[in-house]
C-alpha cells in the first residue's frame, strides 16, 4: 500500500487556464526585465492618450452645442454667453453631480482615491471604475462651464490605467507606483503636447522623486502619449506665446518679486478654499443641492465675463495677445479665482492645472505692466513675466518647479527665459513650503485629514501596524494580588514585565518583575502600587510612527497593546524591535525611490 507521502506526489497537478498562464508569464517578464516595463508603460501611455483625446473632443463638442459658440472659438474666449444657457447648463450639471454625491454618501461608498493619495498612502492602488466615474464627473463639470479644467480627469484616468494593469499582474509595490506615475505622465504630456512636462509632472507630483530606473517607463509613456494625441487631434492645451527677448541678469530680481506675489495669492486661495468648503458644509443646504448653488454663482459671474468658464485656455490666448487695461486684467484674475473656488467648494469635479496657468499669466502681465510704469529699468520683456507668472503660480497650486520650467521651455524653446523661470519657480516652491507647507494638490488631501506633503511613499507607515509587530499573549496577573503572592506566582527570570488587569479584565499597568521582588523583601501591599504606564498604551491598529511617539512620551522600553473596545491586553511591544523594523522599512522605501 503506498504511503501518504507517495500518494500525495501522485496527485495530478492543478490545471491552470491559458489566461492565468499568460498573466504569470507577463508578471515574471515585467519583474525581471526593465525593457518589458518600458513597453508596458508605453502601452498605458497610448491608451491614456486616446482617453485624453476623447474627453477633450467631447467637452469641446458640448461647449459648442450648449453655448452656441462660433467656429474655432473657445468657451472662455467668446465675447459673451447667453445667460439662459449659462444658468441652465450649470444648474442641471450641478444637480447631476449633487445627486451622484448624495447617492455615494447614502451607499457609504468611499471617496475616490486620486493619484497623489494612491502613491503616497496606498502603494499605487486605485480603482479603475471609481476613476472613470471621476473622469465622467470632470467631463460634466467642464462641459457645462464650471471653472475647472479636464487635466485632473486626464491624470485620474491615466494613473488608474497603470494601477489596474499593475494590480492585475500583482506587480511589486514599487512597480505599481511607477505605472501610476507613467499613466499620469502620459495624460499631462499628451494634453499639453509636452513630453518633458508630462514626465516631470509624474516625478515631482505623482512619484515624489526622480530615479534612473523610473526614467525609461515614464518618458516612454509621455512620449507615446504626445505622439498619439498629435496624430488624433493635436494637443488640447498647447500654449502659444509670442517671441520673447533673452533674459539678462538684471531681470532675475524682478522675477523673484513676481514669485513672492504668486505665493501670496496662492496661499490666500488655498486658505479661502478651505474656508469656503467649511462654510458651505455649515449651512443647511443638502449635499445634492450644493453644486446647484455653486453653479448658479458661477453662471452669474459668467454673465459678467465668460473668462471664468472652463479651464481658461481661450482666455489665456486672448489675454496674451490683447492689451487689456490693468483694471480689466485685475477683474479677470479676481473673478476667475472666485469662480474656481466656488466650483471646487460646491462639488464640481476638475483640476486647477490650466486654471493656475491662466491666473498666473494674468498676474504676470499685471505685475509686468506695473513694474514697467514704476521702475522701467528693471522690467524685461513683458512676455517673460507672463511665462514666469504661469510657472510660479502653477508651482504654488500644482507643485513641481521643474514641471513648470519644462512647460515654458517646450513652448518657447528659449533656454535663457527657461533658466529665469526655473529660478523663479524654485523660489516660489521654497517660499510656499516655508510659509504654508503644501501645494494645492496636497492641501486638499490635508483638508480631508491626510497628513501628506508630497507623493513620497509613506503608505508603508500605515501598513506597519502594531498588531503585526507585537508579541501576543503576554503574562498577566490580577492587579489586586499582594506583592508576596505575585512574586510566588512569577519567580525572577520568568519574565521581564507582567501586565496587570483589573476586576473586569481591562489593562491596569505593567510591573517590572525584578522591582516587585525587591519590594517583596521590604514592604507589603498590592502589586497595583508598583504598576507603570497605567495611563499610556498601544492599540493594534496604531501605525509604527504613532507608536514611536508614544514610546517617547512614556520613556519606556516596553508598552502593552490593548483591545481598543474591551481594554483587555493583547500583547506587548518593545521599543528596540519597533525601531529596528521601522528603520528597515524606511531604508527599503528610500532604496525603492532611487531605484536601488
Under the CATH scheme, which architecture of the largest domain would be assigned?
A: Orthogonal Bundle
Quickly name the level 1 CATH class of the largest domain: Mainly Alpha
Radius of gyration: 29 Å
- Average of the residue pLDDT scores: 85
Range of strand content? under 5%
What general form does the structure show? elongated
| Separation, N- and C-terminal Cα atoms | 54 Å
Number of strands: 7
Largest sheet: 4 strands, mixed
What's the arrangement of strands in the largest beta sheet? 1-7-6-5
Number of helices: 25
Structural class given helices, strands, pairing? mainly alpha
How many domains make up the 3D coordinates? Answer: 3
Provide a compact summary of the structure.
With 596 residues, the protein is mainly alpha-helical.
Write the layout of secondary structure elements.
Blueprint: H1 4-10, H2 18-32, H3 34-67, H4 83-106, H5 115-121, H6 128-143, H7 151-168, H8 173-192, H9 195-207, H10 212-232, H11 252-282, H12 290-304, H13 313-321, H14 326-346, H15 353-374, H16 382-397, H17 401-412, H18 415-435, H19 440-447, H20 459-463, H21 466-469, E1 471-472, E2 476-478, H22 483-489, E3 497-501, E4 507-512, H23 513-520, E5 538-539, H24 544-554, E6 558-562, E7 569-574, H25 575-593
What does this structure look like?
This protein is mainly alpha-helical and about 600 residues long. The chain folds into three domains: about 20-230, Orthogonal Bundle (Clc chloride channel); about 250-455, Orthogonal Bundle (Clc chloride channel); about 460-595, Roll (CBS-domain), CATH 3.10.580. The protein is about 65% helix and about 5% strand. It is built from 25 helices and seven strands. The protein has helices at about 5-10, 20-30, 35-65, 85-105, 115-120, 130-145, 150-170, 175-190, 195-205, 210-230, 250-280, 290-305, 315-320, 325-345, 355-375, 380-395, 400-410, 415-435, 440-445, 460-465, 465-470, 485-490, 515-520, 545-555, 575-595, and strands at about 470, 475-480, 495-500, 505-510, 540, 560, 570-575. A four-stranded mixed sheet has the order 1-7-6-5. Helix 24 (about 545-555) links the parallel strand 5 (about 540) and strand 6 (about 560). Helix 9 crosses helix 10 and helix 11 packs across helix 15. The longest helix is centred in the N-terminal third of the chain and has 34 residues, at about 35-65. It is elongated and about 95 Å long. The relative contact order is 0.10. The mean pLDDT is about 85.
Amino acid at each position: 500500500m503506498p504511503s501518504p507521502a507517495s500518494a500525495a506526489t501522485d496527485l495530478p497537478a492543478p490545471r491552470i487556464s491559458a489566461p492565468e498562464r499568460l498573466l504569470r508569464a507577463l508578471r515574471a517578464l515585467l519583474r525581471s526585465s526593465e525593457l518589458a516595463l518600458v513597453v508596458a508603460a508605453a502601452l498605458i501611455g497610448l491608451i491614456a492618450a486616446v482617453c485624453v483625446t476623447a474627453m477633450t473632443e467631447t467637452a469641446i463638442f458640448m461647449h459648442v452645442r450648449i453655448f452656441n459658440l462660433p467656429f474655432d472659438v473657445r468657451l472662455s474666449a467668446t465675447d459673451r454667453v447667453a445667460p439662459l444657457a449659462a444658468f441652465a447648463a450649470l444648474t442641471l450639471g450641478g444637480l447631476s453631480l449633487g445627486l451622484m454625491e448624495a447617492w455615494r454618501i447614502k451607499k457609504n461608498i468611499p471617496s475616490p482615491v486620486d493619484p497623489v493619495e494612491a502613491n503616497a498612502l496606498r502603494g499605487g492602488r486605485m480603482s479603475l471604475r471609481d476613476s472613470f466615474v471621476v473622469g465622467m464627473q470632470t467631463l460634466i463639470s467642464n462641459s457645462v462651464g464650471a471653472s475647472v479644467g479636464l487635466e485632473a480627469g486626464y491624470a485620474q484616468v491615466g494613473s488608474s490605467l497603470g494601477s489596474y494593469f499593475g494590480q492585475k499582474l500583482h506587480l511589486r509595490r514599487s512597480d505599481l507606483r511607477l505605472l501610476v506615475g507613467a499613466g499620469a505622465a502620459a495624460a499631462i504630456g499628451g494634453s499639453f503636447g509636452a513630453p518633458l512636462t508630462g514626465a516631470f509632472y509624474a516625478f515631482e507630483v505623482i512619484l515624489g522623486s526622480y530615479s534612473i530606473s523610473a526614467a525609461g517607463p515614464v518618458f516612454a509613456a509621455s512620449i507615446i502619449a504626445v505622439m498619439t494625441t498629435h496624430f488624433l487631434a493635436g494637443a488640447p492645451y498647447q500654449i502659444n506665446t509670442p517671441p520673447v527677448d533673452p533674459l539678462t541678469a538684471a531681470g532675475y530680481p524682478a522675477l523673484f518679486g513676481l514669485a513672492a506675489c504668486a505665493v501670496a495669492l496662492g496661499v490666500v486661495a488655498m486658505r479661502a478654499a478651505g474656508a469656503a468648503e467649511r462654510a458651505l458644509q455649515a449651512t443647511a443646504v443638502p449635499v445634492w443641492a450644493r453644486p446647484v448653488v455653486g453653479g448658479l454663482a458661477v453662471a452669474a459671474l459668467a454673465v459678467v465675463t465668460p473668462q471664468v468658464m472652463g479651464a481658461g485656455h481661450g482666455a489665456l490666448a486672448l489675454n496674451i495677445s490683447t492689451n487689456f487695461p490693468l483694471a480689466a486684467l485685475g477683474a479677470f484674475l479676481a473673478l476667475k479665482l472666485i469662480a474656481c473656488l466656488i466650483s471646487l467648494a460646491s462639488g464640481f469635479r476638475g483640476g486647477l492645472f490650466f486654471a493656475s496657468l491662466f491666473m498666473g499669466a494674468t498676474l504676470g502681465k499685471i505685475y509686468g505692466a506695473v513694474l514697467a510704469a514704476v521702475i522701467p529699468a528693471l522690467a524685461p520683456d513683458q512676455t517673460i513675466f507672463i511665462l514666469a507668472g504661469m510657472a510660479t503660480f502653477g508651482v504654488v497650486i500644482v507643485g513641481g518647479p521643474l514641471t513648470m520650467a519644462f512647460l515654458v521651455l517646450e513652448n518657447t524653446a528659449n533656454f535663457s527665459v527657461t533658466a529665469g523661470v526655473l529660478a523663479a519657480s524654485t523660489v516660489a516652491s521654497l517660499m510656499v513650503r516655508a510659509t504654508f507647507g503644501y501645494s494645492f494638490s496636497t492641501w486638499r488631501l490635508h483638508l480631508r485629514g491626510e497628513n501628506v506633503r508630497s507623493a513620497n511613499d509613506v503608505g508603508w507607515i500605515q501598513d506597519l501596524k502594531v498588531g503585526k509587530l507585537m508579541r501576543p499573549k503576554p503574562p498577566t496577573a490580577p492587579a489586586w494580588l499582594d506583592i508576596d503572592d505575585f512574586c510566588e506566582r512569577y519567580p525572577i527570570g520568568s519574565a521581564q514585565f507582567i501586565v496587570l488587569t483589573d476586576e473586569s479584565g481591562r489593562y491596569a499597568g505593567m510591573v517590572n518583575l525584578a522591582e516587585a521582588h525587591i519590594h517583596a523583601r521590604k514592604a507589603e501591599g498590592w502589586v497595583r502600587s508598583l504598576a507603570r504606564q497605567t495611563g499610556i498604551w498601544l492599540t493594534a491598529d496604531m501605525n509604527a510612527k504613532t507608536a514611536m511617539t508614544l514610546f517617547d512620551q512614556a520613556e519606556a522600553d516596553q508598552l502593552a497593546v490593548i483591545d481598543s473596545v474591551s481594554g483587555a491586553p493583547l500583547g506587548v511591544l518593545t521599543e528596540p524591535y519597533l525601531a529596528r523594523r521601522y528603520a528597515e522599512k524606511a531604508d527599503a522605501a528610500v532604496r525603492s525611490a532611487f531605484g536601488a
